[in-house]
Design brief:
alpha/beta, Cobalt-precorrin-4 Transmethylase, domain 1, 7-stranded mixed sheet, 3 domains, 412 residues, single chain, 19 strands, Rossmann fold, Methyltransferase, Cobalt-precorrin-4 Transmethylase, Domain 2, 32% helix, elongated
Length: 412
């Protein structure tokens, strides 16, 4: 029976290898590491002895694709046995060990971590590591929405940068969003002779340049102040009054009973107000706003950026055809059907299979159509919402009635 491979992943950078790790490194016949990691290993005095001992076994790679090709090649050549991987810091903190866990079992991996650069930075700043939310912007092309949402929601936010998402780029985004009250910390070349710590306001820090590799930590004294529910119609971008009114939106969200984690479709999303409120409730919810009107799609995109909800995905297309591209939902809201209500309901019941469907109607005939289709397939709940809004009249008030809305909830 063929023996499974054993991959030993060693972190380094801040502490010397332990005696047992040195013995294991000397025993291994193949050791793979990235070019940047090799540079770091070569530059530190405490690693020079072991580097001389293992230099002939080392295979240096440029990127992740090359790494896995080299690993596959080594494992094929060996047939069975053990291989080493060297990586900076803690390989499980946005490191190569995370990628290896996707392809290899726990029994095939042996991880020897060093300190992560984030632990070191927090220790130097006197900030508890356990209170920091951590993001990696390595290779991420669009980070603005994620960044602003996380800064507003966390007292401390740490960001692993790359050559594109630099400290200056991050600080510029904060200034554009008028987040001037935050404090910025940058750890530059941590654990090396070139190590520097910088701190200050965004206005001060934007004027500096930072050598790579670096790590950004943002402290927000006003974190957690943004609303996660209860936004007013006036706060949303919308067109031709195509937006679910505040009171109706509140009832719809209640009837949907959104989970902490899951997938929700918003069909006929209009301005995206329902989608935005849902996405704000939990970062572990993945919300899909489906809208056929391109102008409204652009409106939803503006609202997504305005309220910083990166877990909202926007799909330009017509239901039910466009729904085939989406992952299975836990909940569905139908705010508009574009004349294809019955086709959408059939797809929802036969293909999507959510736990809960909620739909709103202005026209009674549309409500009747939905009830007729769903009444023997689900447990139905029907309500009518009539909102009368106070208006000034001379020195008095009167209540102006808005259009009544029918709300249907189907539990499957």
């Amino acid at each position: 029976m063929k023996t499974k491979p054993k991959i030993h992943v060693f972190g380094f950078g801040f502490k010397p290898f332990r005696p047992d790790e040195i013995t294991l490194l000397k025993k291994l016949s193949h050791i793979i590491l990235f070019k940047g990691a090799f540079k770091g290993l070569s530059s530190k005095e405490m690693y020079q002895d072991i580097l001389r001992d293992i230099s002939e076994k080392i295979r240096v790679v440029e990127n992740k694709t090359e790494f896995f090709k080299e690993l596959e090649k080594v494992l094929y050549e060996m047939g069975e046995g053990e291989v080493g991987v060297l990586a900076t810091g803690d390989p499980l903190v946005f490191g190569i060990a995370v990628e290896l866990k996707k392809s290899f079992s726990e029994a095939e991996l042996d991880i020897h971590p060093d300190l992560s650069s984030l632990q070191v930075l927090c220790a130097k700043l006197g900030i508890p590591f356990t209170e920091v939310k951590v993001l990696s912007f390595h290779g991420r092309p669009k980070v603005r929405t994620v960044l602003l949402g996380e800064v507003r929601d966390n007292r401390y936010l740490a960001i692993f940068t790359d050559y594109r998402n630099t400290p200056n780029q991050i600080i510029e985004t904060l200034l554009e969003a008028n987040l001037k009250e935050v404090k910025i910390y940058v750890g530059e070349c941590l654990g090396t002779l070139e190590e520097k710590l910088h701190q200050g306001s965004p206005e001060v820090m934007i004027e500096r340049t930072y050598k790579y590799p670096n790590l950004v930590l943002i402290e927000n004294p006003n974190w957690g102040e943004r609303a996660i529910l209860g936004r007013r119609v006036e706060e949303f971008e919308h067109r031709a009054n195509l937006i679910t009114k505040d009171e109706v939106r509140g009832i719809v969200l209640h009837k949907l009973a959104p989970p902490i984690r899951g997938v929700i479709w918003d069909i006929g999303a209009g301005s995206g107000s329902i989608s935005v409120e849902l996405a704000s409730l939990s970062k572990d919810l993945q919300v899909y706003a489906v809208e056929k009107n391109l102008e409204l799609v652009q409106v939803i995109e503006k609202n997504k950026e305005r309220f910083a909800v990166p877990n909202l995905e926007i799909l330009h297309g017509e239901a039910p055809l466009a729904l085939k591209e989406l992952p299975k939902p836990d909940r569905i809201f139908i705010g508009g059907s574009g004349g294809k209500l019955l086709d959408i309901l059939k797809y929802v019941y036969e293909k999507a299979c959510p736990k809960i469907l909620v739909a709103t109607f202005v026209i009674f005939n549309h409500l009747q159509l939905a009830v007729k289709y769903l009444e023997d397939k689900s447990e139905l709940e029907l309500i009518q919402v009539q909102v009368n809004r106070a208006r000034a009249l001379s020195r008095d008030l009167y209540f102006k009635a808005e259009n009544p809305i029918f709300i249907l909830k189907a539990t499957f």
